[in-house]
Write a structure and sequence with these properties.
2 copies of one chain form a homodimer. The first copy, chain A, is an alpha/beta fold. Chain A has 2 domains: 95 residues, Urease, subunit C, domain 1; 291 residues, Alpha-Beta Barrel (TIM Barrel), CATH 3.20.20.140. Helices cover 36% and strands 22% of the residues of chain A. In chain A, the strands form 3 sheets. In chain A, strands 6-7-8-9-10-11-12-13 form an 8-stranded parallel β-sheet. A 5-stranded antiparallel β-sheet of chain A has the order 5-14-15-16-17, covered by helices on one side. In chain A, α8 links the parallel β11 and β12. The two termini of chain A are 19 Å apart.
Chain lengths: 395, 395
């Protein structure tokens, strides 16, 4: 059946557009005779703004406490303590990573997210239970939201012997990328950590997405080691560095060099645009062709109470952090939560063009900038041409 | 008539409270015989969280474009250009500061704000038209929201001769405080600017609230000049410095000295907790007894498209900027948008205690932290014991 989506606003102004969908894919306007013969359904967007489905390029859906009892956060401010606290929480509480990842994914979907790349904890205590939980969620929601899994050694590999084998099992179970974490500050051995990460990636023919919170020159050193390995293994296009605060902290000259090398090796960046940390230099990176995705990171978990699963809120955070106030500047934030994320995730057929999968969101906003700053409610979401959320309610 | 507000959640946990209001003021539980004799109305809070009405301690309600056609922002990034652009916008467009200040005030009220301190542009082009507009709004909303006016030389006094007289007229018309703006970077003569500001304050027996965006040591110099004048004129308790990024930018030793001097002279700070600038050192300032208020600043104006009028969103921005993740840390953000703001504005009888004016908000949140991070919708607001907003709708 062909679906006609009429009165959709694609940009500011009075012009409304009609889009056509067949078999979950945008098509050119069908010839009248085909419509007469086959018939079609019609959906009236009523002048609402239509955007491609949002991409959350850095999530932790396996650890969200969304929908559970309130977690009173009293966790000291350092990575080791936070990670240890989380493991203890899991030991002492019943935690269902399938249920929780499904809850937060549906919450994200209600707000227009149609694609998620999520990092999933594996360690020597929980093994790959969370990978299995998220795989179950991925299957349960396969017609509503696309989920990509990063096998993530949250508690370390080098500092926690035995984790490499769990990582291996996680990749075997179906993860799409190999994760990693602060090779120097957390793992204390950057070369060994990165060698293990890239070894797994090579073994499974998968990409890498590594958490890098390391500051300044130390972080930049890790970036350089990742560039070396990306080159050596010809993994261009398959490596992402998440957070990468350091890219904005080193000297301007060093920033230029790193941006050029990242661009040359098609290494992408995921940012949450944190208010309290330096952010990667967006314009410089884009100038060198580096793809940038935005992510909501952990939402309502033992790490942090913040977040609602809304990528438009994340775009607002980007705008506030990068001081984007012009309408044209806000397009950069929109890019990060849509096409930029799609490019990082190498999504095929993403967008609103003919041939793209019909994943889109309808918003009560006059234009792109307003969608970002106003946080419109009651969104409607289509996944592959099917309405999966109507006015904020999951169908 | 006595009002009984039952089933109100004052903190996390299962305990629900009953509050009593008479003549717009919280009272102790009345004796049964009084209730029998006089009768009472009853309002069921239904377990919703009850907070005192929010205080927006730094607003620009006279310049908001809320409810107007979308303003496409293409303004260069420097203070002079932004201010000049705004004056041009006003010359070229019909702009009704009464209508606009009322619109954004009502939008704020719908989200629980019951008190606003707003800076109001005066200059040699618009004169005191905006002061008159906001005074009309203040009168129109006098039973719903309290508005305090700062006479604000947005376009400068020294660099724009004739503005002093307009400021004088604005104070005469009924402004509550004298405003000012970057004495060195914008006005180019810190001593002369501050002398004029404090002269007006002295003349009208009013306080001062000055915009200070100046960086580092230069900003700190302006702070020092303000401290000197506060001392000399015995204006302790009546001076606020807005933004004051510099307080977090100078050396630790200098920060300590400034915080101590500010505390000693009861000079308060207003912050918007911007993601892209350094913020005043909250804990250090509070340690020295400095009162801190949070403000939504300009909302949806020619300066910036951001903001919705929601002080809980501002509290979230504070939490993200100051990296407050613990529940107890988030109390600081809540303080800033409630009692801290009330202290800065020297509000009499603010709060939930017996004798305080019954200004409060009801939220679908389990506790204070959740109210800040989740941005609950459909709020109900009482002003002096009267329901003025029910489930997000203005009554």
């Amino acid at each position: 059946m062909i679906l006609k989506v009429k009165n959709a606003r694609l940009q500011s102004g009075d012009d409304l557009a009609t889009l056509w969908v067949e078999d979950g894919v945008f098509i050119d306007t069908p010839p009248p005779e085909q419509l007469t013969k086959d018939g079609h359904e019609s959906y009236d967007a009523g002048g609402r703004l239509l955007l491609p489905g949002f991409v959350d390029g850095h999530a932790h859906i396996d650890k969200s406490l969304w929908g559970m009892d309130w977690y009173e956060n009293d966790v000291p401010r350092n990575l080791e303590a936070i990670v240890e606290n989380e493991r203890r929480f899991r030991r002492e509480n019943s935690f269902d990573s399938h249920q929780q990842s499904q809850r937060i994914s549906e919450q994200a979907l209600r707000q227009g997210t149609t694609h998620i790349r999520t990092h999933i904890d594996v360690d020597t205590e929980i093994g790959i239970a969370h990978v299995e939980g998220v795989l179950a969620t991925k299957e349960a929601l396969k017609d509503k939201i696309d989920i990509e899994l990063v096998c993530f050694p949250q508690s370390g590999m080098i500092v926690r012997p035995g984790t490499y084998d769990v990582m291996d099992a996680g990749m075997k179970a179906g993860c799409d990328l190999v994760g990693g974490i602060d090779p120097s500050t957390f793992e204390r051995d950057p070369v060994e950590h990165l060698d293990q990460v890239f070894k797994l990636a090579e073994k499974y023919g998968k990409g890498v997405d590594l958490h890098l919170h390391e500051p300044g020159e130390l972080g930049a050193f890790s970036v350089e080691l990742m560039i070396e390995r990306t080159k050596a293994l010809s993994m261009q296009g398959n490596v992402t560095i998440s957070h990468a605060f350091c890219l904005g902290e080193v000297s301007q000259e060093h920033q230029e060099k790193l941006a050029a090398d990242l661009g040359e090796n098609s290494i992408s960046i995921a940012t949450t645009a944190p208010a309290n940390r330096t952010v990667p230099p967006f314009d410089l990176l884009r100038k060198h062709g580096v793809e940038i995705t935005a992510g909501n990171d952990g939402i309502r978990d033992t790490w942090s109470p913040y977040g609602t699963g809304d990528m438009l809120q994340r775009a607002m955070f980007m705008g506030l952090k990068y001081r984007w106030r012009k309408d044209v500047e806000l397009q950069k934030a929109l890019y990060a939560i849509t096409q930029g994320g799609a490019n990082v995730m190498q999504l095929k057929d993403y967008g609103l063009e003919t041939g793209c999968k019909a994943d889109f969101v309808l918003l009560n906003s006059r234009n792109h900038a307003e969608a970002i700053v106003a946080g419109p409610v009651d969104r409607t979401v289509f996944k592959r041409g099917e309405c999966v959320v109507e006015d904020g309610v999951l169908i």
